[in-house]
Design goal:
With 318 residues, this protein is an alpha/beta fold. The protein contains ten helices and 13 strands. The protein has two domains: 110 residues, Nucleotidyltransferase, domain 5 (2-Layer Sandwich), CATH 3.30.420; 166 residues, ATPase, nucleotide binding domain (Nucleotidyltransferase, domain 5, 2-Layer Sandwich), CATH 3.30.420.40. The protein has a five-stranded mixed sheet, sandwiched between helices. Helix 3 crosses helix 10. The radius of gyration is 20 Å and the shape is globular. It starts with a strand and ends in a 6-residue tail after the last helix. Bound molecules: zinc ion.
Length: 318
């Protein structure tokens, strides 16, 4: 039985966030640090284990965690503690992060996808509290998705269930990072909004194009910029189709929109929800609930810790 606290690690491409989390979902202390560029896997394991040990030794005596839980920004097989690829961390792939950290730290280690962790966090402590199931869209540079049912992530056979970003919304749509055309990610992500705005406003100067961020486009839309409004409306429409598809496929009790782009708030989520309602079976239109995520960056830490408490709670050695 896992007692006490879990040291949760939110491992992104450039930053590592660490938090000491209690079973009832409180973050007792936290730290944010940069991860040194890892030339190879050994360097990554060493650097990470060093950061974690350092954070651990900074706590009060007797506050050693019972386990370490890592939320990782990439496709992850949590039952094996295995990362398929880490495109943002020196292009590393086939990483046995769980095992490697466990041998260096002498503690049980669980590893899960960070978007899945954020969804678990929202289920237990955030916008999904009290629901039996939820689907969470994570809108950032890309579009991630996670399905939580009865407090557990549904990862599918190979760990990629919920990858809503690579479901195709428009067969002749723009090219996606995955190589195909018309994926939701190519239409409703932060990068899609930026690309679309640059194209539609015919910005040809590289310096001006670099200054366009998703926030810039949403701000311009609020100020009444016609092109920005069209770009946001198109992204919202694509997101609406994605929401309706999820509603028909999985029928979650609640749909949550999180990630950096969700900070655009009502200007994206409201029209997306309205379009989703038009797309779902008419008698069920008022059953569709869409909410904005509540926990922000803390969701991934809280969810990773919760994942460890659930997985190790039975006494299974990992
Ligand atoms: Zn794709």
């Amino acid at each position: 039985m896992l007692k006490g606290q879990v040291l949760a690690v939110d491992l992104g491409g450039t930053n590592v966030r660490l938090g000491m989390v209690t079973r009832d979902g409180r973050i007792l202390r936290r730290r944010r640090t940069r991860i040194p560029a890892a030339a190879d896997k050994e360097a990554l394991y060493e650097a990470l284990a060093g950061r974690i040990s350092e954070f651990m030794s900074g706590g009060a005596r007797g506050s050693t965690p019972g386990a370490v839980a890592v939320g990782f920004a990439g496709p992850t097989n949590s039952s094996a503690g295995y990362i398929y690829t880490a495109p943002n961390v020196g292009q590393l792939s086939d990483i046995r992060l769980g095992e490697e950290l466990k041998s260096r730290l002498g503690l049980p280690v669980v590893v899960a996808n960070d978007a899945n962790c954020a969804a678990l966090g929202e289920f237990f402590y955030g916008a999904g509290m009290g629901s039996g199931s939820l689907f969470m869209f994570t809108l950032g540079t890309g579009v991630g998705g996670s399905f939580v049912i009865d407090g557990e992530i549904w990862e599918g056979a190979w760990g990629i269930a919920g990858e809503i970003g690579h479901t195709i919304i428009a067969t002749d749509g723009p090219r996606c990072n995955c190589g195909r055309r018309g994926c939701l990610e190519a239409l409703a992500s932060g990068s899609a909004v930026i690309r679309d705005y640059i194209q539609k406003s015919r910005i040809s100067s590289e310096a001006r194009a670099r200054a366009v961020t998703a926030k810039f486009v949403f701000d311009r839309a609020r100020q009444g910029d016609r092109i920005a409004n069209r770009v946001v409306a198109d992204a919202a429409r694509a997101l609406g189709i994605g929401i309706a598809n999820v509603f028909h496929l999985l029928n979650p009790e609640i749909v949550i929109i999180g990630g950096g782009v969700s900070r655009a708030g009502a200007s994206l989520i409201k029209p997306a929800t309205a379009h989703a309602r038009e797309c779902v079976f008419p008698p069920l239109r008022n059953k569709l609930k869409v909410r904005r995520a509540k926990l922000g960056d803390d969701g991934a830490l809280l969810g990773a810790a919760r994942f460890a408490f659930t997985k190790l709670g039975s006494g299974t050695d990992v």
